[in-house]
Amino acid sequence: EPEVTQTPSHQVTQMGQEVILRCVPISNHLYFYWYRQILGQKVEFLVSFYNNEISEKSEIFDDQFSVERPDGSNFTLKIRSTKLEDSAMYFCASCRKQGQAFYGYTFGSGTRLTVV
Amino acid sequence: ILNVEQSPQSLHVQEGDSTNFTCSFPSSNFYALHWYRWETAKSPEALFVMTLNGDEKKKGRISATLNTKEGYSYLYIKGSQPEDSATYLCAPVSRSSYKLIFGSGTRLLVRP
Predict the structure, then answer these.
(1) Which pLDDT tens digit goes with each residue over B83-110?
(2) Using CA atoms, how far apart are residues A88 and A110, in angstroms rounded to an integer?
């Protein structure tokens, strides 16, 4: 069964450093998402991406964050100047659309980011 | 879609017990509802995607119903097994960019 893969599975970084979280969506999916879950809190939507641009972003997704699809397979989340409160599990997801319906919404297994 | 509520927050049952959880959500601008089963350190596993009012879906011992007019969905597990222990998340979806808005989940622990 097709999978969304995320790397690395764990990342420890020092406060103020930049990190890039990587995701390889399912190959025929064109809609991409990032979510995060801070320990003990709800899974939160960060950003959706389609046709090489952001289609929607939450208020969490400020100038510190950016997303990119640098080639035909990867979808990345960059966090500049990380803060302690960025420590969370970050999930990538992808899906496809047929007509007006969305299909195959699939999550990766996540990257646990720890900022120290 | 905001204010997705799941109850109970956690549930401890004995193996063989049947159980159910509730997800409530604002019914306006509804497009679909996803149920996920999530074990720590794994991807959320899709259980059901429900779209129509009155939908009932079943997968083995797990089933779900949907009421879009009053804004709730129930997830049922018949004859719980220890391997059912996980967090169960619901996530309604609005029509815009198909982002999922998650509830806080119900953490189920099934004791052998």
Answers:
(1) 999 999 999 987 766 889 899 999 999 9
(2) 10
Interface size between A and B, measured as CB pairs under 8 A: 54
Rounded Cα–Cα distance for residues A1 and A39 (Å) = 29
How many CB atoms are located within 10 Å of the residue A99 CB? 6
C-alpha radius of gyration, chain A, whole number: 14
Nearest to B7 by CA among B112, B88, B111, B110: B88
- Residue B74 bridge partners (DSSP): B22, B65
For residue A71, CA distances in Å to A24, A92, A93, B60 come to 10, 16, 17, 40
Query: Between chains, do A109 and B34 touch, taking CB under 8 Å as contact?
Result: no
Ranges of residues in chain A with a pLDDT under 50 are none
A24 touches chain B (CB under 8 A): no
